[in-house]
């Protein structure tokens, strides 16, 4: 017997296969487009700013890590008086007081945390030397009061807020070594120092002019 070879499929039989492939391809493209659109609408656009007038971010565009910090009374560092105390308090802020430049045409900005640190330092100096006749101390009391309320630390302290009573028995505030969840201030410090390495001489001069004669300029290296 003669073997009969299979005849090739007719164009009419091939057509459904091609149509199916084209349909699947179009369906895939539509699904990809839909997914990309969904990603686009749920992903917030990175805000852009002109840095003209008030058109700038409210906060430094830096995401800080969360860290645990145990609060304690440091008997060796950050004393009220003495050369070492002055050096340590001044070193809490980065060079140039922690100011930063932002924008394509860089503009100088202060950062609230460093402002708060210098306010505390201002009050320390007033306690040592007496009132200096400037409005800075009153400003600092208001600024620190509002800063503390703004951050609203919810850490629980057993027994209320108190400390050891030096004139008798009883403990008011067993808060020593109480762990608080904080934002990593060291990350902010290091970022600020790295950013200042990019400053031009003109930027340095402008920053110094802006703080000259104010309490924000006090302290060597600030």
TrEMBL record:
GO terms for molecular function: oxidoreductase activity. GO terms for biological process: mycotoxin biosynthetic process. It comes from the Eukaryota. The keyword Oxidoreductase applies. Pathway: Mycotoxin biosynthesis. Keywords: Membrane, Oxidoreductase, Transmembrane, Transmembrane helix. The chain crosses the membrane at residues 20-39. InterPro entries: UstYa-like. Belongs to the ustYa family. This is Oxidase ustYa. The lineage of its organism: Eukaryota, Fungi, Dikarya, Basidiomycota, Agaricomycotina.
């Amino acid at each position: 017997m003669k073997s009969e070879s299979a005849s090739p499929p007719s164009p009419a039989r091939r057509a459904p296969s091609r149509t199916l492939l084209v349909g699947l391809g179009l369906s895939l493209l539509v699904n990809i487009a839909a997914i990309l659109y969904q990603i686009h609408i749920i992903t917030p656009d990175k805000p852009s700013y002109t840095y003209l007038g008030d058109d700038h971010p409210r906060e430094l565009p830096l995401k800080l890590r969360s860290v645990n910090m145990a609060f304690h009374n440091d008997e060796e560092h950050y004393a009220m008086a003495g050369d070492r105390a002055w050096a340590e308090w001044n070193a809490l802020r980065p060079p140039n007081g922690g100011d930063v430049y932002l924008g394509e045409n860089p503009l100088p900005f202060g950062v609230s945390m460093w402002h708060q640190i210098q306010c505390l330092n201002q009050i320390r100096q007033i306690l040592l030397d007496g009132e200096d006749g400037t409005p800075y101390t009153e400003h600092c009391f208001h600024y620190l009061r509002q800063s503390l309320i703004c951050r609203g630390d919810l850490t629980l302290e057993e027994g209320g807020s108190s400390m050891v009573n030096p004139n008798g028995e009883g403990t008011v505030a067993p808060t020593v070594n109480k762990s608080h969840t904080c934002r990593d201030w060291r990350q902010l410090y290091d970022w600020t120092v790295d950013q200042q390495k990019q400053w031009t001489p003109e930027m340095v001069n402008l920053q110094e002019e802006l703080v000259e004669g104010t309490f924000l300029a006090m302290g060597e290296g600030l």
